Amino acid sequence: MRRAVFLFLLVACRAFAAGKPFQPEDLWLWRSLSDPRISSDGLWVAYIETGNDRNAGAARSALWLVSGDGQTRRRLADGIAPRFSPDASRIAWISGNAISVLALSTAGGRSVPPVLLAGPFAADPLQLAWSPDGKRIACATRDGAFEIPAIGGAVRPLSPAESRRIFGAPREFEDPLPSPDGRKVAFLARDPKPRKYVVRKLYVMNSDGSRARPLSGALDRDAASPQWSSDSRTVYFLAQDGGETHAYAARSDGTLRKVTAAPERLAGFSLAANGRAVTVTSGMELISFSVFDAADRLTLASPNREWLSRRDLLPVDKVVYESAAWNIDAWITRPVSSGAIRHPALILTDETCGEGFDLPSQILASAGLTVFCANPRGAPGYGEEFGNLLPARDPADAFDDVMRGVDFLVARGIADPERLFITGGALAAWAIGHTDRFAGAVARRPLRSDDPPSVAMLEIQAMLASMRVPFGQGR
Fold first, then answer.
1. pLDDT tens digit sequence for 376-408
2. 312-467: which CATH architecture?
3. Strand-pair category, 415-424 with 343-348
4. Where are the domains of the chain?
5. Is the entire prediction scored with pTM above 0.90?
6. Cα separation of 122 and 462, whole Å?
7. Is 301 helix (H, G, I), strand (E, B) or coil?
8. Tens of pLDDT along 111-127?
């Protein structure tokens, strides 16, 4: 009797706690986070929050500031590219075609407005950086580079004669970063190889350009977002590994340490002098953690948590199958149903898949579709050899890998073989002319992927309409 009552209460509680299914309109609620930056003393974190303006059909970005303990959070202004001064006393950012600055001693209050430091420029600033002594700010526009006194004053153009080449090897350079002691420069580069894909490695050199050498060791993954430790002995960075992203520590003695291990994807990385780092997860949460103990973790901002708590989160499973003697990773988002129902399946292509929350997949699965996303040959995150498997048969080999995934779904009774659909760019277009196994195909955005949310919502609705799948079917 007690067991029966317990089971009844458990079912009743679950029914009461159940949310509503995801809908295409949820794209308007979604908030994305980017460009996290932490002050050198670890007391403040700045980031960009982008939301969707339904009336304008466009995305809007704003600069936010949160305290290192997550207790104080403030919207500063419309803007991008937040950068803290070296002494952590001020923060500067790009506001349209101008640069603004705020003293962090006033950050906790709301009465002191930011100061317009420079502008308007003839062309919008693209990047900015503080000088090591905090007295100047450099900014780059399409018209050239400029220098601005940090206390305000005349903007001075920087001439090419004031720059010098410190390293001239034929490589593609990215993200040069001087060490705190000014003696070394870390940077990212790809070796000059005649290949379609070359792994981006972490390098370090002396400040005069001598003794350039790789610092990421034998790690066969693309390095990103390098950050120096305060003692100038270690460079921390992010690297995608399969469907996950992890932080790594590369020491000047050549040793490499994996810092994080959680199955998630991360974007953006910034490090304080005390070893506190900030990054953004694929679920759009701003988190901080210690690079000495990644389990020491704190969520600083989670703009989607409240409305996501009112939705039914559908299960996502990672699977591995074989294609042409290679192991292919894939992720399956399944609709909720009773019994062994073979659902229609939508195959997503031309995008990198991985761990973590994916809103479009949840929306489509809520409509009754099994959503399948694989990382075929040529996908990043699996090393240089895997990334170069498509030199002459692109996208034919990737298409073969996807079709082996379709076979996997059908053989295990997951997908209805009579109701298979595919969507993507070039690979979906290729499928239209090379197989008749799909009941429908949507070739979308083959050349660009930065459309506003209104376009993304229309794409999802068009996919569902072409499949004749109304919302709620199969739930």
1. 999 999 999 998 887 667 778 899 999 999 999
2. 3-Layer(aba) Sandwich (3.40)
3. parallel
4. 312-467
5. no
6. 41
7. strand
8. 567 788 888 888 889 99
